[in-house]
Amino acid sequence: MAEKLRLDKLLGNMGMGTRKEVKQMIKAGMVKVNGSVEKKAERLIYPAQDEVLLNNQPVCYEKYIYLMMNKPAGYVSANEDKRDPVVMELLEEPYSNMELFVAGRLDKDTEGLLILTNNGKFAHNMLAPKKHVPKTYYAKIAGRVTEEDKVIFAEGVTLEDGYQCMPAELSILVSDEESEIQLIIHEGKFHQVKRMFEAVGKHVTYLQRVQIGALELDRSLEEGAVKILSAEELALIGADLGI
Ligand code: URA
Question: Whose CA is nearest to atom 2 of ligand 1?
Fold first, then answer.
């Protein structure tokens, strides 16, 4: 059956305004459907065939949107938080009007590649153990990271609560009193990277996610900025995420 949705919902999903603003725009005669002014917010639209214009500009409907954010430290990966600022506050229009959520959270003090989407299935699958989407982190570690740590991580380090992690690939970039590493993990437990290092007696002092699947953080994105992911970039995250 052809997909259909309400006119106000379509405009809202495309970030044209809040639900209330969109309703006002429709009432004010600013919206045309197939060439005629439409004043009913509940008018059903078949996006594959209907043409919608707002102020005589076409509104191209995409069911799902995927954004890459370069997350700065100090923001919680959530839609709202009682205490701290959240990543959604960093969004500007039209994205700030969309009903997005985080696919694969980062800790408040972690930086780097974060994906925001309105596709719940995608967000869910990103974390699903069966999908094993690899995530690559760059970190600074207080203490000397050793070849022995590499072996322990490759075999599956055991966390303080007894959980045995899946094998992870540790690359040592600098081994000194402060070390620098890259780590690829295939799951996303709470504070996973930090807890893996705590399990070998070391402390993460800086953490940045640099890659999800084969999709790398775009280094030209300023902290807090977002860009829309193309179909090609999405494909790099891996098949079967409900895209
Ligand atoms: N592991 C952590 O410890 N924190 C993150 O934010 C992501 C992975």
Answer: 191
Q: Which residues line ligand 1 (CB under 6 A)?
A: 106-107, 110, 191-194, 207
Distance from the alpha carbon of residue 171 to the mean position of ligand 1, in angstroms: 17
Q: Which are the catalytic amino acids?
A: 107
Distance from residue 161's CA to the centre of ligand 1 (Å): 17
Any idea what the Cα angle at residue 142 is, between residues 139 and 145, rounded to 5°?
75
Euclidean distance between CA atoms 34 and 108, whole angstroms: 46
Q: Tell me: the pLDDT tens digits for 43-78?
A: 999 999 999 999 999 998 888 899 999 999 999 999
CATH of 134-212, one of 3.40.50.920, 3.20.190.10, 3.10.129.10, 3.30.70.1560: 3.30.70.1560
Q: Rounded CA gap, 34 and 46, in Å? A: 11
0.90 exceeded by pTM: no
Looking at the CA of residue 188, tell me the nearest atom of ligand 1. Answer: 8
Residue range 81-98, pLDDT digits in tens:
999 999 999 999 889 988
What's the one-letter identity of residue 170? L
